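User: Teach me something about this protein's shape.
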Amino acid sequence: MALLEQVLGYVVNQSQGGAPAQSHAQIPASAQQAGQQGGMPNLSPIAKGVMLVLAAKAWQAYSSQRAAGGAAPAAAAQSLGGIGSFGAGSLLGRLAGMIGGLGGAGALGGLMRQFEQTGFGEHARSWIGGGENEPIEPEQVETVLGGQTLNELAKRFQIPIDQLKTELAAALPEAVDQLTPRGKLPSDADLAKL
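Assistant: First, the predicted structure itself:
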């Protein structure tokens, strides 16, 4: 999923202070550009919540591949570029710092409240609780997040809004589910253990 790769590339770039990823030459140019377009303070609270969920999902996918003893998926490895130059453990620490910069548990709670307030609370609750994750359609993602947040994220990652809505509709249910394995929203301490 291109969006997850770009989010992870963005996290790597931001962990380097937004500097050009010279030591990470394999990070896709679009992710490098996204990372250089400004720091976290420029994101709206809802966009920060979306970024937090996607960054955690991207990291979990990458780290589970590494834990399985296999090579990371080619896309994730490319997204992380020169990970060997600073190590996976160091990257995890940097990701934890980025999660704090994304608003931590408060941002995730805010995102879930946005689902409630726009009439899609049942969807979000199914992702947090046990059982099947209720799917969400791209048009519903637009209703929940609003045009301003979608424009903000589409601009940051330089992808068309329709593609962004489709990728978010596919990624959000599983990403929120992964962040809430005990059936409740995580605390900042839980998020730091990613």
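Now, about its shape. The chain has one domain: 2-18+26-192. Residues 19-39, 73-87 have pLDDT under 50 and may be disordered. If you'd like, I can walk through any region in more detail.
User: That's plenty for now, thanks!
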